[in-house]
Amino acid sequence: MSGMITYGRPSVASRERYLASQIGCDYSYPNMGCTYNAAPAPRGFRHDQVKGLIGRGQDTFDLAVAAMREWLIFDQPGALSYPPRAPLVPGTHLLVAGVFGPWWFTGAGRIVEVFDEPWRFGVAYGTIDHVVRGEELYLLTIREDGSVWLSVNSYNRPDNLWVTAASPMVQTVLRRVRSQAIARIAIAAHEPAATS
Known about the structure:
- By secondary structure, this protein is an alpha+beta fold.
- Helices cover 26% and strands 38% of the residues.
- The chain contains four helices and eight strands.
- It has helices spanning 12-22, 58-69, 161-165, 167-188; strands at 4-7, 46-56, 79-82, 93-100, 103-117, 120-129, 132-142, 147-158.
- The longest helix has 22 residues, at 167-188.
- The radius of gyration is 16 Å and the shape is globular.
- The N and C termini lie far apart (45 Å).
- The mean pLDDT is 87.
């Protein structure tokens, strides 16, 4: 089906209906886990990887983890995730949307894996119904030198012929969302903690 396409930001009601329609559907790609394990990349899939320095030190890492737990990777202009604050548990269904001009492209996915260790935190999710088929991993790490990095590792391919024709536009949106995710987490990792 290639996801949900709307002129303008999708309403909460349309997101709810679309998400409910995807419960129980299969992943739309082979080799689940290929973004984080030794599984080979699916044949014909594009591999993209981008990473950015978030900052330094344990406090930065802890703030960045808190931001990722709140799904701030998609709290950016022209992107959204739904439901807000979806549980970070394998099997959780979610929607991810990006915008190009007035058009919103919303895709359904499911969390494949979550990493929650003292030196890394991340979430991998795979597509169910989306303009591209594939998997994306957002992985935050703190290295021995204290530097904190966020990397985005993904494998995808167009879902159908019209997406193949629009591939440059689709890849532009995906690259923008990934780059802005790194910037958003970097900002959140340096914001003072909210107090009540």
